[in-house]
Amino acid sequence: MSWEDKIRKVVPYVAGEQPVGKVIKLNTNEFPYPPSPMVATRIYDMAQDEIDASDNMLRKYPNMDADKLVRAISQVYGIDYDKIFVGVGSDDVLAMAFLTYFNSDKPILFPDITYSFYDVWADVYRIPYEQKKLDEDFKIIKEDYLGGNCGGIVIPNPNAPTGVLEEVSFFEDIIKNNPDCIVIIDEAYIDFGGESALPLIDKYDNVVVVQTFSKSRALAGLRIGMAFANPKLIGYLKDVKFSVNSYTMNYPAIELGAVAVLDTEYFEKTVGMLIKTRENTKKELKKLGFKFADSKSNFVFASHESMKAKDIFLKLKERNIYVRHWDKPRIDNYLRISIGTDDEMKELINALKEILN
User: Fold this and answer.
1) Closest by alpha carbon to 104, among 125, 133, 132?
2) What are the residues facing 310 on neighbouring strands?
3) What gap in Å lies between CA 181 and CA 151, rounded to an integer?
């Protein structure tokens, strides 16, 4: 036996391309507008503080609990401090949640077409899992999750990459029918048209709701995610996190995240702008012969009636327009198109007209 036989080998998550130069980037669901102006103001203030302070703030470890950020989230969301956990993007939060809550010989359950990090984490942590097929309309079949005999459940709402939204009552049925399992609801895109399941954390002791600053708060580059649950579940999550790395949240992220979440007026304005652009884009795509589920996210998951998705993907790329395509069963003829600014979407539509003609 060689040293290589002792290595933990997994197939890693593959992120969307990060092209450089002048491109229209509609492939990784980033927010098309800048963060709150309060973020830029705080960056300037932090720079001045750094220059003026005799005690260099960046040479010290940040607060372990990211206290300032958590208090700001608590204030805006109206949720008790001890029901909130933060991490380096929702990926970090979800990875810690998998490691903490899914510690059973029974398989965890999640959809077959969903966020493609779920099976990666399950493989990394040696968690058994079953992927439940979506129906022909890319909707989750609730009955697949009502058995009550699993190691846990994780479902995004809206789902990605399909954009399909379910009502809170849909998830409440799943939670009620699985009292001995933790149910994670991944709400990375909930701000773009859905109702959050957050009220359920006070009603049930086996539910965790995860959200992110990467989408609707335009801070993907800063890496801030959060989980909401009852204090006992949050306590277990912190125990695992602090056993891996006590200082995952850096000082700038804590400071800038705190001011960003407090600017609710800017948040509501820019999310409203994106929703308006999304609805207009859906109308234009339909005119061009695309079909898709009714997305309530910041992207559209679409296929064309006569042209293959991969061909469209490559021709858009030739024009420096990047969307997302997967060579996977059931979705290989679909494109996930992130919603950009009005001008970016106009350029996309014009390019599609040229390609399809």
Assistant:
1) 125
2) none
3) 6
DSSP 8-state symbol, 353: H
What phi-psi label fits residue 279: left (phi over 0), alpha (psi between -120 and 50 degrees) or beta?
alpha
On whether the CB atoms of residues 162 and 293 are closer than 8 A, the answer is: yes
Q: Where are the alpha helices (DSSP H) in the chain?
A: 37-52, 67-77, 89-101, 118-124, 168-176, 231-244, 251-262, 264-287, 309-318, 342-356
Rounded to two decimals, the pTM is: 0.95
Assess contact for 236 and 195: CB atoms under 8 A.
no
What DSSP assignment string belongs to 120-136? Answer: HHHHHTT--EEEEPP-T
Q: Are strands 299-304 and 290-292 parallel, antiparallel or unpaired?
A: antiparallel
- Summarize pLDDT for 113-151 with one digit per residue, the tens: 999 999 999 999 999 999 999 999 999 999 999 987 899
> Is pLDDT above 80 for 354?
yes
CA–CA distance, 321 with 103 (Å, rounded to integer):
43
**Angle at alpha carbon of residue 217, lines to 37 and 346, rounded to 5°:** 90
What is the arrangement of strands in the sheet containing 324-325, beginning at the earlier edge strand?
290-292, 299-304, 335-338, 324-325
List, in order of start, the domains of the chain with CATH numbers.
3-35+265-356 (3.90.1150.10), 38-263 (3.40.640.10)
Q: Which helix (H) or strand (E) holds 306?
A: none
pLDDT, mean of residues 312-325: 97
Q: What is the DSSP letter of 291?
A: E
> Is the preceding omega at residue 158 within 30 degrees of 0, hence cis?
yes
Q: What is the DSSP string of 249-264?
A: S-HHHHHHHHHHHH-H
Is 275's pLDDT higher than 90?
yes
The 10s digit of each residue's pLDDT in 160-182 is 999 999 999 999 999 999 999 99
Nearest of 355, 285, 320, 341 to residue 17 by alpha carbon: 320
The secondary structure of 70-112 as a DSSP string is HHHHHHHHT--GGGEEEESHHHHHHHHHHHHH--SSSPEEEES
C-alpha atoms less than 13 angstroms from C-alpha of 264 in its C-beta half-sphere? 6
Task: Read off the amino acid at residue 7.
Answer: I
